[in-house]
């Protein structure tokens, strides 16, 4: 009987948690504000309590719903008011401007130099002198704007005409031919079989993933390693 109660409470907590997550919106950890993070941890803790509280499961369930409603209301208010958004989510902090690092702004963001250097390396910058501006974002990440000299060249810089990029068409997924994708790519099954034969594949079942690019080129990844 106790096991049945635990099973029912666990399922109920998961259902409520899933509904609240869908209502509050799907965000990655890196996209969460401090307030979102706190709400998420609290709701998760209450959900665990709901799954194990066999005497009074109504109270933690009600608390979960209240926290979810509060989170949705604050999110709505934040979209309508810049002041509310700044209060709950915080404001970006400019750590570097014109290539100069601000110690006071670093202290305000509670970042030390080693943390900033690590974030710069992750972003591809191993020398801070290559950075024009660094901004500490509300979600805890740092955005870097390189100096013009170190910015990657673009086709626009060289006045080169470029074609519009489109997503490739995945015509084979896990050994199965995606007929709709193949048709959208402007190809037919006979063309696909011939291309696979030229690449050494006897049938689509040997292909884990195959994609057709904008230029009509087929790229294949074998089902078995080493092929």
From TrEMBL:
<keyword id="KW-1133">Transmembrane helix</keyword>
<dbReference type="InterPro" id="IPR007353">
    <property type="entry name" value="DUF421"/>
</dbReference>
<protein>
    <submittedName>
        <fullName>DUF421 domain-containing protein</fullName>
    </submittedName>
</protein>
<feature type="transmembrane region" description="Helical">
    <location>
        <begin position="58"/>
        <end position="77"/>
    </location>
</feature>
<dbReference type="Pfam" id="PF04239">
    <property type="entry name" value="DUF421"/>
</dbReference>
<feature type="transmembrane region" description="Helical">
    <location>
        <begin position="6"/>
        <end position="23"/>
    </location>
</feature>
<feature type="transmembrane region" description="Helical">
    <location>
        <begin position="35"/>
        <end position="52"/>
    </location>
</feature>
<feature type="domain" description="YetF C-terminal">
    <location>
        <begin position="80"/>
        <end position="212"/>
    </location>
</feature>
<keyword id="KW-0472">Membrane</keyword>
<comment type="similarity">
    <text>Belongs to the UPF0702 family.</text>
</comment>
<keyword id="KW-0812">Transmembrane</keyword>
<dbReference type="InterPro" id="IPR023090">
    <property type="entry name" value="UPF0702_alpha/beta_dom_sf"/>
</dbReference>
<keyword id="KW-1003">Cell membrane</keyword>
């Amino acid at each position: 009987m106790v096991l049945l109660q635990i099973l029912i409470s666990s399922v109920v907590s998961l259902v409520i948690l899933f509904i609240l997550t869908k209502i509050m919106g799907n965000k990655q950890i890196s996209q969460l504000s401090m307030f979102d993070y706190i709400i998420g941890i609290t709701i998760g803790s209450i959900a665990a309590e709901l799954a194990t509280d066999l005497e009074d499961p109504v109270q933690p369930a009600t608390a979960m719903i209240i926290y979810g409603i509060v989170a949705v209301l604050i999110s709505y208010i934040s979209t309508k008011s810049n002041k509310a958004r700044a209060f709950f989510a915080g404001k970006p902090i400019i750590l570097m401007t014109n290539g100069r690092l601000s110690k006071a702004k670093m202290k305000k963001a509670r970042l030390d130099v080693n943390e900033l250097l690590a974030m710069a390396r992750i972003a591809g910058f191993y020398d801070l002198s290559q950075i024009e501006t660094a901004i500490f974002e509300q979600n805890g990440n740092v955005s870097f704007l390189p100096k013009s000299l170190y910015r990657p060249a673009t086709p626009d810089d060289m006045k080169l005409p470029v074609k519009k990029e489109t997503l490739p068409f995945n015509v084979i997924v896990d050994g199965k031919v995606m007929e709709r994708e193949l048709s959208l790519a402007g190809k037919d099954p006979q063309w696909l079989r011939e291309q696979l034969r030229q690449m050494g594949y006897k049938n689509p079942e040997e292909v884990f993933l195959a994609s057709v690019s904008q230029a009509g080129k087929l790229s294949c990844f074998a089902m078995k390693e080493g092929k």
